[in-house]
Amino acid sequence: MSASKKDQFKVVKDLLTKADTIIVATDSGREGSNIAWSIMSQAQIDVKKKTIKRLWLNSLEKDAIITGFKNLGDHMQHFSHHYQSDISRQQFDLIRQDLEASRKRTHPKHIDPYDIFCATLYVLKNGCTWRDLPADYPKWSTVYYYWMSWSKAPTPDKPALLTQVLKKLSLIDD
User: Fold this and answer.
1) What percent of the chain has pLDDT over 90?
2) What is the four-CA torsion angle of 148, 134, 126, 173, rounded to 10 degrees?
3) Mean pLDDT over all residues of the chain?
4) In this structure, what are the phi and psi dihedrals at residue 4, rounded to the nearest 5 degrees?
5) Of 116, 134, 115, nearest in space to 126 by CA
6) Longest distance between any two alpha carbons in the chain, whole Å
């Protein structure tokens, strides 16, 4: 990291440390929330001791901004989980097609494959049992079903899909 980036990060870390309330005003998708959580995690902010609010804006007009600040939401309500094992949406987009192609489409999916994959990474990183997955992930049985599907090697000489995508994300070595 360059010296100027380190200086900039130190300023942000100091502000986050001093604040009682943190307002997350990143883009409205999970990726923006992931960035905010990553910064707080890197800055070693104890989020359990802070009030974290979410600023939602539909416009950058003065009245919309004032209304947004008057109606700050509970950030935790809109961001169901964040664990160190989670990957970003941008990283997931690199493997999304691989994972979605592995399953026949017989009915519309109701669970975000990103959440299933992050839950799988949680189990792999933490070594917990499937039933001990945190409740903010999809049901353990659903995650286990996908893990079983992704872990089967199609042939003895071809690695399992899970191994392939973990390598693609550089989460495991060759």
Assistant:
1) 41
2) 50
3) 85
4) -65, -35
5) 134
6) 63
